[in-house]
Amino acid sequence: MAGFAYQLYSSRRFGPLRRTLGMLRELGYQGVEGYGALLDDPATVDLLEAGLGATGLAMWTSHISLAQLREDPRKLIEVTRRLGVQTLFVAYLDPAERPSSEAEWTAFAAELAVQCEPLRMAGLTVGWHNHDFEFIALPEGTRPIELLLEGDPSLQWELDIGWAEVVGEDPVAWLERYTHRIAAAHLKDRAPAGENLDEDGWADVGSGTLDWATLLPALRAEAVPQLIVEHDNPADHERFAARSISALRSIERSKRAT
């Protein structure tokens, strides 16, 4: 059974990086996920490479921006080889960049497939990380996430469970539908309405409104390769990291005992 990884974006306002990695290792995380800004700065890449080596944490996956994919795939290949990254997820589309029709999303998926080719030729897996807008139906009735995955059969998916819940989607239904395309999942929790406003309404995993006693076994049953803990804006990253992995382990212990 794969252990839990941690999205370093959750700790972007805290630091230093080496201390964050040490904290995660002590809490029992087995890996971390990077994000675009970490890969852009050579000095940060040096720190990250050293920190991963010192702690034994793996970095199997990382987010990248669409601009990074388009502008310098060779740099991405070089950095991922240094850090041991195997899969890259395009993480976000600014509102101005988002297609607005089925035809536009289909064309975007075809363009994305071409842009991903240098990374795939170098042995990397490339996928898409969702937010909320990929689930919102277009005028034709289709969803952008469907068009992305249908438009490029090689594209993998990092299912962000928290964002799916925000727009009222059932993550388990999507998980079952696209089992063989889901290379990772973000474990993210949502606070009750009106709470945790200083943290943009997010919560430590296991302390919010999502049903992890159902979600976590479903993820395990479908053998999702990477389970990555994330919070978009924690007030205290150590609290978040500690409470989240503790809650997830508790759920798994209780399931094994039954």
Summarize the structure.
This protein is of the alpha/beta class and 258 residues long.
List the helices and strands and how they pair.
Elements lengths: L3 E4 L9 H11 L3 E4 L1 H5 L1 H14 L2 E7 L1 H6 L1 H11 L3 E4 L11 H20 L3 E5 L14 H8 L4 E5 H6 L4 H7 L4 E6 L1 E2 L11 E2 L8 H10 L4 E4 L7 H21 L1
Parallel strand pairs: 1-2, 1-10, 2-3, 3-4, 4-5, 5-6, 6-7, 7-10
Antiparallel strand pairs: 8-9
Q: What does this protein structure show overall?
A:
It is a single chain. With about 260 residues, this protein is α/β, with parallel strands linked by helices. Helices cover about 45% and strands about 15% of the residues. The protein has eleven helices and ten strands. It has helices at about 15-25, 35-40, 40-55, 65-70, 75-85, 100-120, 145-150, 160-165, 170-175, 210-220, 235-255; strands at about 5, 30-35, 60-65, 85-90, 125-130, 155-160, 180-185, 190, 200-205, 225-230. The strands form two sheets. Strands 1-2-3-4-5-6-7-10 form an eight-stranded parallel barrel. Strands 8-9 form a two-stranded antiparallel sheet. Helix 1 (about 15-25) links the parallel strand 1 and strand 2 (about 30-35). The longest helix is centred in the last third of the chain and has 21 residues, at about 235-255.
